[in-house]
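3.2 Worked example (two chains)
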Amino acid sequence: MSGCAAAAGHCGGFLITANNALLSLEVTESNSPERKTDISVYQLVTSVKSILYSADVIALSASHVLMAAGTVFGEIIVWSCFLSDDGLHKANAVGSIHHFFTGHEGSIFNVRISPQILSLNPNQPGRFLASCSDDRTVRIWDISDCENKTAQDPSAYATDGYDLRSTGFGPVGAGDQTVGSESCVVQAFGHAARIWGVYFRSIQNKDQTHVGLVSRGEDCTCVMWDLSWQKSSDGATRYEFTEASSIQPHIGKHIWSLDLHRLDSETVAYTGGADGALKRFSIKENDDTQLPVRPAPEPEIPGFQRKRKQPTTDRARAFAFVSPSCLLCVSTNGQVQLGHMDQTGRSTTSWEVLREVPDLGSFAVISGLPQKGLALIGNSRGLIQIYDHAARSFTDVATIGSRPLGLFFLETNSPSTQPSKTAKEITFLVCYPTKEEATLVTASGWNSDSFKTHAVTFKLPSTFVVCSAALIFEGQYLMIGSKAGGLAVYQTPKNDETSEPTLIDRRIHGREFVNHIHTVSSSSGSDGTQSDFVLTCGRDGTYCLHEMRLDGNKTDTLSMRIVHRTASMIGGNIEGAYVDELTGDFMLYGFRSQEWVLRNESKLTDIINIASGGFRRDWAFSPGSKDANACFVWRDDASLVVTHIQPDASHLLRAGGHGRELKAVDVFSAPEGGRSLIATGAEDTTVRLFAPTSLVSASPWGTFECVRVLDTHKSGIQQVSWSKDGKYLFTSAAFEEFFVWRVRAVPSFGIATNLLAASPKDDPNSDLRILSFDLLEVKEVDRGQGFLLCLTFSNSTIKIFHFSPSGCHFSLLTRGTYMTNCLTQAHFLVTGSSVNLITAATDGFFTLWDLTTTLESFYTMTDSVLEAKHAFNGSSAPADDITCEGRYQIHSNSIKGMELVPLSETATAIVAGGDDNTISVSLLRTSSTTTGPRANVATVSIPDAHAAAVTTVKVLSQHNIPDTSSNTASTKITVATSGNDHRVKIWSIVVDPAQPGTQGISVEFLLDRYSAVADVSSLGLVRKHGSVNSSDSDVPGSQNSQAQLVVCGVGMEMFGVED
């Protein structure tokens, strides 16, 4: 359970077991010439024999070992082992129990003994004990009396045979004198789930009357705590235990490991989670003798420095950044002030009064453009002024006649153009609280004699309240976002005429604010078509990428479609996005409940969480640059809180993946010059898209770089599959969820994904799992791309759909039912002019279904290609139900994995693995008759092919072997299999359809390889035109392999494969 090194001057250590026994580990010089040292492990003493969930042990001296043990029944036992000084530990060890703590409402998951604290007691040093449990509390206990205990002191409790309570659960009542009645000195509630561990931070000052702690939990959160104590006038010690801050470094569930390291004035925390990630964040320490006294807790947040500063005796009315290190603020007495912030965060922000305008005391609205050193200020009479930070000047630019609701700076430069740091002309939008219109103002020369302004009015759609705006197509069009989730696009007028919207969509972000709009990239087609890719962020927790297309056929027709939509891990409110200048990473910021969050979306990790009271408070944010750190300012009551965010506030040492075990994988191997994509689905309900990386560029991703996360599913993923061209991804889960995603690459953004459609349900409340599906590409009436889909459900039902990507709709063609067993596999088999379906089930049988007759009314078949006879409009007009033509047993129980290899028009090889640890190879021969297809099956089984269930089968290659003597050919198939035994095995199968029965099937074992991935569920194959270094260089041919085998289960790894 735990261990520690022996006291100074002794070689060895001590270990405590789950049965509450102390073991001694000694390292001595060996008398044998074969080795230099001997290691001896033996039991010293046992305490109360209880099952432990946690323990901590420290050697106070050579003769005194102190232990704390947390039991499964909520008890904490603090006891010592006393040893003699002569080294005869085994013969003279004595155990003594000092404390028996109870009170937790659950099992004790961690206990931790603090370092020695000199200031805890007046006359002697002391120690604390911290404990945590699944009751979500951290409790602090005083164990200072244990420091000076000796073997001669009587034990507070007998070591056996005493009368204990049945468990340690429940609170300790006042005045309770029974066993286990000792109560904690202080406790606090934290985390949203079970707390796995708690740790003391180091104490640097001997007079320090406070100490910090860190806890980790099932909710993927680390909580920073402050524990302080102070002697009162009556001689009692008063304790205060408060949560200072929290950070969520991992996703999914569980932070399994944590360690702390003191480095100068910071404590560096390293965490490891169930998502496989290793992360680091810093905690700013306060080594003063006492914590500062303040009216409200002002927590230390990891990785940034904070300071409060009230500019004047009144409060701030409005504020905005005018440069990365300067904040323009208007106070309630009308003062316009400039705050200069020290980027080191070690000194107080200095404030400079620029001017005093009484009108601004009652109302003011500010908008800043810090990259150009400009700000707009509007008052209640509609006067708008521009502040030029370089010239320290204020200029009246417009009088709009009524109070403005918001001011929005608009930049006209394209994404490919580097914006200038100075501006000769500005454009901004003014919106109003009551008018259904907005004013577009252009101003130039405000610091010269050639000052010009031009204003144009836009008529807004009904109930359309502006909350964001941006210019697109280099200023030709204006896009505005509403507080009700809509977008409207206007053509920028060349005169004073009122403009009407060209495009409008009321529900881009549901019914929530569209907080942010900006252009990510632009492109042009050979036909003159222009495209701008515009990013929008909303309070609905999603960000969207829109492709705005402007036709070049002199009609200037504008169209808009969403090419990407995803919900960020930020949560319910994304306020904005930008690309980091130093790293090129895509950054998001917004609010998660009451916390402001800065998130690196490229690396899928939070940079910082700041408890700021939520988005309803006034705030401003300036992204980091090469010359300045990022800065976040928010109003707390009458004060402004300024937060400088250090670049290394949270550092990703090793990126992770899914937070739970993977259940499915499929690989799209891109053509030469492209980038392959690996789609994985897991029990954490997410689908992730990974791209293989080379070892040179692996950090921090390793072999797999996650390029996108899809989290629309509500349950664990069952299967994922790509279309042949990689444009579409199909995923299935429980609740009859079957989704179709459009996947494409967008310049300057990366992989874009958009949910096109979900399959219809017979019952909206259905909880059926779609265990397997298969797809077959067909041609639409207009020669476009379509898909024939087969879905198998956990109630033994089969549904056949046609999916039209152009219309994003499903059409039900037919359905069928298979007995009472769950269907685990489904594969289309197209040969010549016939279409069949092969399914496998939990009864060990595979079944042949004839679809040819059913599909003839919908498709024509030419050269094994299905072409639609008519257009599908999404309506359901199913044909007669399909029935199985034959059942063939190939396993004794459930078939977990199955692959089909067509050999000829009449012969197909079926390779399967099952729960019976067996691999089977079946030769299916079919022939057409007047009554339907007739099939003959011959099967060869390899029993005990694995030591556990065979869960997945993957065909690696297929080669024809001609036989010149008989003028026939056999087929050599290379197959990989895996399961729950940590092994990946390679098999060679030769099938000759010309031979009768099983004589035409031969199986040869080629390779057995250990895999570190537990409970392997699926295998994928990355076919490469070039070479990518594998993480396992000892596989033959892996250094120059043309393919890589992806192994998925509890984790992922990749093997190099050569034929």
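3.2.1 Second chain
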Amino acid sequence: MQHKLCANCGFLNPSFKFCGECGMPLDGTSRSAERPAADTVSIEQALPHGAERRQLTILFCDIVDSTAFTEKLDPEELRNLLEVYRTCIMEVVLAQNGHIARYFGDGILVYFGYPIAHEDTAHRAVRAALGIVAAIETLNPYLHKTFGVEINVRISIDTGRVVVWHISGQEAPEAIDIVGKMPNVAARMEKLATPNTVVIGDTTHQLVEGFFKCEALGASVLRGISQPVNIYQVSGEIPAQSRLDIASESGLTPLIGREREVELLKQGWTQALATNGQALLIQGEAGIGKSRCVQLIQEHVESHSDAVTLEGRCSPYYQNSPLYPILSLFQEHVVQFTNTDTARRRLEKLENLLRDYNVSTVGQDAEAHTPETLPLLAELLDIPFEIQRRTETGTGAGLYGKPVKQDTYPSEWRRRQRRQQTLEVLVQVLLKMSERQPILFVVEDLHWIDPSSIEFLTLLIERIENARIFTILSWRSDTDPSIVYKNRHNVQSNEDGNSQLVPDGNFTNSAIDREILEKLLRPAWAKTLQLEALTPPEVETMIQHVAGDTQLPPNLLTKIVEMTEGVPLFVEELTQMMLSEAPHPDDPDRATSEEGDALTLPFNALDATSSQPQTMQVPVTLQDLLTARLDELGTAKEIIQLGATLGREWTAELFHKIAAGVDLGNNIFTDFSALKDELDKLVNAFILNRNETTDNQFRYTFRHPLLRETAYQSLLKSRRQRYHQQIAEVLEGADGSQPELVAYHYTEAGLPEKAVDYWHRAAHRALERSANVEGVRHIMQGLAALETLSTHINTSERREAAERRELELQTTLGTALIATKGYASPEVEVAYTRARELLETLEKSAEACHENAHDRMTSADGSEVLMDRIKALRFPVLFGLWLSHLVRGRLRSARELGEACVAIAKQAENQAFEVEAHRALGATLYYLSEFNSALAHLEAGIERYQPQHHPVPAFLHYVAEPGMTLLAYSSPLLWCIGYPSQAEERIHQAVNIGKDTNHPFSEAVSLHFKTVLYQYRGEPEKVNTSATQMLQICQEHGFSAWEAAATVLKGWAFAAQNCPEEGIAIIREGINAWKETRGELLMPLFLALLGQAHQRAGQYNLALQTLDTASRVITRTGERTYAAELARQKGALCLMLAEATETGGNENTHSTVAQAESYFQEALAIARQQNAKSWELRAALSLSELWRTQNRGEDAYNLLQPIYAWFSEGLDTDDLVRAKNLLEKLRVTSDP
């Protein structure tokens, strides 16, 4: 059959007299519509022989009720009808550059976007579908006349990601196959179309909305598809509709130019030159031009010969690497390290820099001869640091720097101090530099920044007010700030009600959100610059800039403006693509070319919520455009795909090492020179940027992140995993300074067993540097990798190995969570509880293995070693769990854990464990008011304590010095049981140890117990002094829980010194802060102190209510240390109420006095049961004073005298002096 091409519209007609598209008559002069062979050849040449992932739009077309034709038509006639039908469909499809993949009888499957990609693929598919419906309508008269039948069709279209490949050994264009969910959806949708209509899915509708008339048909349930699918019916095309027109209907942000932005940037630089430091956050959607604005100000700054630009860039691969962008710019631009520098040379450069800028001390008030900066920065930059003593004047020696002790588990105060000092040093270097030359300090892509870098930038911006520094930051504002910077994990409940912390597959780790941005920009000299889209004239200017000397025809220029919608990224990429496809300038057809249609490019927010290096979701509206850009690269596409797996930025040398170990289709990558030539071609094609580093290496970066993501997502999972594995193995053989990167690549390679170890190493490394948030993230990633590994475990040995790894991870997680969440955090308990469960499981397995070895009379050495390894972790796990239960006020379970710790320590014959175990059980019994037993354990710990052998435990960073803690706990305990002088001596010993060890956390804890002792004794002046000292330490080092306790005690001192209202406010502030830490320990004491403050303010009823609340807490938790005094306070309050309401023999007054006596008797009973002589004395004093007023002097004397006589020390303390005086009065009144 001869087909004719309509001269008017180009529609292909199967021997019609009139065009089936536009109705124009078809005469004999119409051109033949037979496709030239070159078209088929070009398609075959475009077919890649490897499989890949890509977005595809597919079209299904089927004849309605085609089985009826088999009864009406002879098989030969039916064949001829199908031939006409298929030819008609084919001509329409080819006109839109579709690819007929397969015929299914009367059904036809068509691909759009493969093997040749187009930026408007979905548009072409829908346009082809409408063309098919129109063509069939025109064809039907011919079919009726020839075959006596007419046909109706149903058409469905859907868009989605598939795996597509060329079937091996077949060169025909039809030999292309695809797999994925989307083809099944599209096939099922076709049955929902009514005759001669077109239905499309959600994604296709998103791509073509506004360009075609679409009617929503609602959500439909399709056979074999789990979720309902939204269906739309397309009835026609909307002529002359642009994306700008569509966006305007819903309200378009006004388009503005860049003149205002450039002026603001220049003004900021001018202010900085005048020593008025400035900070500017440039924000806008991806591709809007943030980096271009930074480049503009950099070019402006270069005109100042004495100015310097320091630029760093955040990366999604390094969100968990502390200070990554800051260290990068310091190493390259400030200290100017090179890869050839030895460790000594690097140290010399660093030393020269600090000497040159006179940055030798930490802090503005540091002494001139106490330099600390060199060891701090040496540690930060991973320089092995050993400095010998230097003789300065020939007399004596000064220590220029202290060797940095690389503790595996440095104490919390030291890590926090070192972290803060390090940030201070970095800021000081910049401030000193700015005194000599103005600085443009740039950090881009804050949406991928790590928490430590945010802390640095916040400090820097706070300090640049009077410096010649202009800080410019860029942030992608189209990410969702409400769901980032959170340690997301799920707490799942077991059947028994216990909770278990499990990793969330969507674990978050971006470090920035709105609140952090507000804090970052809080200073008056910090501002925000929001970038808006470009206007069409500005887009045209940019197009001409990209095109350079090439003059684009007006029609092409107009199309680019329409398709890019003012987003510079889209303008740049689309212009480059058009330039590569455009005919040569001498081509006469160039100016009249009408190829291409309007492109829809709405931009969707990228996913920036992952806590690890991750891929971004490329908007479906951009994937076709970016895929087409990659398809143009030919064999160089493999370079881009491997580079995309490696990251956004890499050196040619690193790329060459990795490429040498992977199976690339193009073998030229084994030759380094040839590889660099290929990379240079990609630079010239505006795919990559190339920068030469200070050590003469070339560093390549992707010009646009979306292009990198498109290349990465096009890889098959299997190939992607091979790339990741090769990258991990190469990085593994490097210096090992970034274990988190190795861990990430092994994770993505599908090798969780290797990934787990590196996540654990990365966690330890982060914790050593006080990067606690990153440490938690690394551990969670390690747990997620273990969970993946567990699905592939098929032997008991491998399962036990995985459980041992999880045990180590959970133990480390508990430590890290204490740092980030606090002792009483539920997450801490969950981590240690899970670790305990694993311990019990592993111990049973190890014991069984040991017994089996003996039964078989084989060597049990291996099982014994395994048991020892497991048992070594038991004490740290139970100790961490004990600490959590104690602070949360779960004293009964804390007691059981303390007893278990003692048993384990004795069994292990580990003296350090015994010291901590006796401390744990002694402290718990102290709060349970079992004072004699508590003292016995504390004394046992003191007896075993050897300062040189028992430093702060390595297994828990946030525990005070053991000896100090034992002495500190025993001090108020000794006072309680009647030894005030020994209590005083003990607390002074504890405080001295806290100071001597130079361990602020221990010093803060010792001051807490000192303050409590003075409060027990009722000495507000001393309480105020020690609480003030404690507050200063806690605030300096971030000990939030102990700061809250100090606040409460200080408030009591205020109230006791005739400032009750102020004291109440301070106590409430402290109690609220304590509650925020989730702690319930000490609440009875805190509430009792609040009750006393209310009492001093004359608020007796409120005071009683507060004390009743304290009693309920005691009942719930069992914390009875202050129970006797609480009952005595209630009695004193009742007397005050009676006195306030006394009206001469009022019956209520007598009842209240009787209630007071009852409370005093209760206090006596509690104290005697606890053997708490000091509390007994105080209760007896109150009861004796009451009886004296009731003419019961003899009873009062008989009660008080034996208690007073028991004391052998501390006779000059207030309570004993009061008792002595009262006894003398009672003796006088009782004598005849």
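3.3 Remarks
The radius of gyration is 39 Å.
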